[in-house]
Amino acid sequence: MKLHSLIKFSLVLCFVGITASQGMAFTNIGDNWRSNYPDACQELQDATTNAQNCILCHTSGFGFNPYGDDLKEANNDFALIESMDSDGDGRTNGEEINEDCTLPGDPISPVEFDSWGSIKVLFR
Ligand SMILES: [Ca+2]
After folding, report:
1. How far, in Å, is the centroid of ligand 1 from the Cα of 84?
2. From CA 20, how far away is CA 88, in angstroms rounded?
3. 3-state secondary structure of 62
4. What is the pLDDT of residues 47-84, one digit of tens each?
5. pTM for the predicted model, two decimal places
6. What are phi and psi for residue 8, nearest 5 degrees?
7. Alpha-carbon span 120 to 36, nearest angstrom
8. What is the C-alpha separation between 115 and 48, in angstroms, rounded?
9. If you measure from the C-alpha of residue 34 to the centroid of ligand 1, how many angstroms do you get, rounded to a whole number?
């Protein structure tokens, strides 16, 4: 009986440890992204946080949008995918991040933004 409880306790600890480490990795990618793009607009900076569901790379939960898929395939090397157009909207990821203030993994962004980026996209 004690061995059974010990095994259960160990499994719970493993689950908590794995979940915590995934959360930390998730956060570190967002931190790394913000460090790599300190001049990106505030909407994109916010899109890398849990408060905005990390919509820069994710669709929902741990699902990835096209930019997140490309970033994952590039082993989280942001520069490697800057010249790509992950969402197929005609603008490279680098242009969307550094110039447009639009989500590089969402071809219809910045519909959800109420900012200069949403005005700029009308004149492309
Ligand atoms: Ca694009």
Report:
1. 8
2. 34
3. coil
4. 998 888 899 999 877 899 999 999 999 999 999 999 99
5. 0.69
6. -60, -45
7. 23
8. 17
9. 19
